[in-house]
Amino acid sequence: xxxxxxxxxxxxxxxxxxxxxxxxxxxxxxxxxxxxxxxxxxxxxxxxxxxxxxxxxxxxxxxxxxxxxxxxxxxxxxxxxxxxxxxxxxxxxxxxxxxxxxxxxxxxxxxxxxxxxxxxxxxxxxxxxxxxxxxxxxxxxxxxxxxxxxxxxxxxxxxxxxxxxxxxxxxxxxxxxxxxxxxxxxxxxxxxxxxxxxxxxxxxxxxxxxxxxxxxxxxxxxxxxxxxxxxxxxxxxxxxxxx
Length: 243
Known about the structure:
This protein has 243 residues and is of the alpha+beta class. The chain is built from eight helices and twelve strands. It has two domains: 14-159, Heat Shock Protein 90 (2-Layer Sandwich); 171-239, Orthogonal Bundle (Arc Repressor Mutant, subunit A), CATH 1.10.10.10. The chain is elongated, with a radius of gyration of 20 Å. The two termini are 21 Å apart.
């Protein structure tokens, strides 16, 4: 944790913090597109339901008596880690929680979240995290008590035996802080799935005109994120594997 590619701290309303934190995570994990019929569906490498449940649980069940400790979220090569101050209630274990048992630490916060529809039913959140990850072909998440904290580790997708993240994906090395725009993230995600991309692909992917598509690809080539191959009508681009 001595070197950061990106770092943010959020204050303000709790719901605003949740949205900002969820967006931060999504900006640093892989996104792939699937064409179903006439529509394109974007799917994150980690289930959005699992991410949201883990963040909501951290907010609802954290120990607020020590205001010097914060909820911390880390995006690493192999996991997304969410750490919340305060251990499990004395009457519960990790196994009991996974079985649906529940004990509320912060009743007012929990009631507000329930009334606003952020919680479906008591004790279902951890089971939903586990189930949605397994359904997406991921390893079972690790949920444990570590000292006076609850530690949730969501395992990221592995490609070709290599943990995939904004830093390493399927054997390709990508420097995250060089990827400056959402459009560049889309190009990288497309390349991770399809191996190569053309200007025509970018036009369809982003709904932009040819000139804009070529400019995006040129800027990414100049940054060293991608490499141009072929010539004229046969021009295409691949990830820069030397980075």
